[in-house]
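Customer escalation, tier 2.

The customer says the design service returned an amino acid string that "doesn't look like it belongs to this structure." They asked us to rerun it and document both sides in this ticket. The original structure tokens are below, unchanged.
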């Protein structure tokens, strides 16, 4: 297992305390958001092996999985121009940019199931946004930079690599179920 920086260990402990004492998406997001913002303001703790890019696919690395599956923490890595499919999460989540920049475009579905863009949010290093069933769960994410990869840290209300989620076709509104998985077999940190 990789040596874990105390900054990340303290973040895991703090999030664990929040999920043990709070329930509901809004309460958890309110408490954890400033913690994630503080974590991603410091780029001294993520081992290089969890920030490796791939030329054709964005990568999702498991950093921590709560033993009770109450939350997971992952790093996402995109090379310039990479975009995710339009997708949902089905659980609460927070996204914080550690390196580079991301653009998140949110969508809603109309009564006939068509997707309509609702907003666009540009996140730079140190900034955080929320996703989830109560806050707006359908989006896509792009690295708009042309000269370097972007790395973000995500925390989700469950083991996101094992949760059945949905990808949406923008043109047709068709929905396809998927499970994202992880590119690494072992988490960066475990209890």
């Amino acid at each position: 297992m990789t040596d874990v920086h105390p900054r990340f260990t303290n973040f895991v402990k703090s999030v664990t305390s929040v999920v043990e004492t709070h329930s509901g998406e809004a309460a958890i997001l309110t408490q954890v958001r400033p913690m994630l913002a503080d974590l991603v303001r410091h780029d001294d703790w993520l081992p290089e092996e969890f920030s490796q890019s791939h030329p054709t696919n964005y990568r999702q690395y498991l950093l921590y999985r709560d033993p009770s599956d109450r939350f997971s923490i992952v790093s996402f890595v995109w090379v310039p121009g990479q975009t995710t499919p339009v997708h949902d999460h089905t659980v609460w989540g927070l996204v914080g940019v550690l390196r580079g920049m991301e653009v998140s475009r949110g969508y809603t579905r109309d009564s006939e199931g068509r997707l309509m863009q609702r907003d666009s949010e540009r996140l730079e290093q140190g900034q955080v946004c929320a996703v989830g069933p109560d806050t707006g769960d359908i989006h896509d994410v792009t690295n708009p930079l042309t000269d370097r990869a972007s790395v973000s840290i995500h925390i989700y209300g469950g083991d996101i690599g094992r949760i059945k989620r949905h990808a949406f076709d923008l043109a047709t509104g068709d929905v396809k179920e998927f499970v994202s998985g992880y590119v690494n077999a072992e988490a960066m940190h475990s209890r």
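Tier 2 assessment: The sequence is consistent with the input. The longest helix spans residues 6-21. The longest strand covers residues 115-124. Sent an explanation to the customer and offered a walkthrough call.
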